[in-house]
Design goal:
Elements: H1 4-12, H2 20-41, H3 49-72
Length: about 70
């Protein structure tokens, strides 16, 4: 959840005129950053290596499945 101070601080850095899309994009980004910080503070963040390990596991799983399907045909 965002707080008013951070939102006002962010908006104060905008140019005098801006689109609603720019505002919404910035607010979404700000919220995602805040959520990421909260997750990290609560020990729920993942390491840089963890996504790579999951991709490797999926790649091996799919390769094995593809190999088995080729044996059948």
């Amino acid at each position: 959840m965002l707080n008013k101070t951070k939102v006002i601080n962010t908006i104060s850095k905008f140019p005098e005129q801006f689109s609603i899309d720019d505002l919404v994009d910035k607010m979404i980004l700000l919220e995602k950053i805040e959520n990421g910080i909260k997750h990290a503070d609560n020990g729920k963040a993942i390491s840089d290596d963890e996504p790579d390990k999951k991709i490797d596991i999926l790649a091996v799983h799919h390769s094995a499945r593809d190999f088995k399907s080729r044996e059948i045909t």
